[in-house]
């Protein structure tokens, strides 16, 4: 049996534990996609609104329709100034609103990163438990001629497969959730809500993080000698 087949076979063991890990990763990916795509939508909205606001405020004598939009914008600005007790000009207010929205984008990106990291960190515990229960099996593999390097690669690949499966499930569910959320907004408002690079980078980063986090328990277990493996109670 090759190391790749061994990784896939081990993945189907401890199904409840592995399923729990995959679900946690999927949840982290779903949260990341929703938050990051929302941030991208806000950024896109800022770019569009800045151009649109400048056109509305700067062009006040073209048509009656534009004059109505201008009067509406100025009325809204006057209301905000009176409500907040400020005296912002049109440009100042637009800049402050853009800065506020940009801060929201940064917060969303930070929360998304934390959510993904929390979901992926469970791989260390899962792989630690899985591998600790296979010490006798690892001893048998070494007796059959498997090297430390082969056992290390096989165990690390198992962690990577958990991350890959979890990220794919999370991307599918997250994409559906984003599509549902986008139906509540005006069409075209979030034209870059879920770009392809976000989907691809999420899968790649999640898989790489899973490989890295699974490396330590895999390395630790691969160092066990045959004598130590058979002296274990399991």
UniProtKB/TrEMBL annotation:
Entry annotated with the keyword Cell cycle: no
A Pfam family this chain is assigned to: FtsX
Subcellular location(s) per record: Cell membrane
Annotated Gene Ontology cellular component terms: plasma membrane
Keyword tags: Cell membrane, Membrane, Transmembrane, Transmembrane helix
Record membrane topology: Multi-pass membrane protein
Domain ABC3 transporter permease C-terminal span(s) in chain numbering: 112-224
Residues in the signal sequence: none
Bilayer-crossing regions: 21-46, 104-131, 151-181, 193-216
InterPro entries tied to this protein: ABC3_permease_C, Macrolide_Exporter_MacB
Similarity comment: Belongs to the ABC-4 integral membrane protein family.
Protein name (Swiss-Prot/TrEMBL): ABC3 transporter permease C-terminal domain-containing protein
Originating organism: Methanobacterium subterraneum
């Amino acid at each position: 049996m090759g190391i790749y087949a061994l990784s896939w076979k081990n993945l189907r063991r401890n199904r409840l534990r592995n399923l729990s890990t995959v679900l946690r990763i999927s949840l982290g990916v779903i949260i990341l996609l929703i938050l990051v795509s929302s941030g991208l939508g806000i950024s896109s909205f800022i770019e569009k609104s800045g151009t649109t606001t400048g056109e509305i405020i700067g062009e006040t004598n073209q048509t009656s329709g534009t004059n109505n939009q201008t009067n509406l914008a100025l009325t809204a600005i006057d209301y905000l100034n009176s409500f907040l007790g400020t005296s912002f000009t049109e440009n100042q207010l637009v800049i402050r609103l853009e800065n506020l929205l940009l801060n929201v984008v940064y917060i969303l990106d930070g929360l998304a990163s934390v959510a993904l990291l929390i979901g992926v960190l469970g791989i260390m515990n899962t792989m630690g438990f899985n591998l600790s229960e296979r010490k006798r099996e690892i001893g048998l593999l070494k007796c059959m001629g498997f090297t430390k390097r082969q056992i290390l690669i096989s165990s690390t690949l198992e962690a990577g497969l958990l991350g890959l499966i979890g990220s794919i499930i999370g991307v599918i569910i997250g994409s559906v959730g984003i599509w549902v959320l986008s139906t509540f907004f005006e069409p075209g408002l979030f034209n870059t809500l879920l770009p392809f690079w976000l989907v691809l980078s999420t899968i790649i980063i999640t898989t790489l993080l899973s490989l890295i986090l699974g490396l330590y328990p895999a390395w630790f277990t691969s160092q066990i000698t045959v004598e130590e493996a058979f002296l274990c109670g399991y």
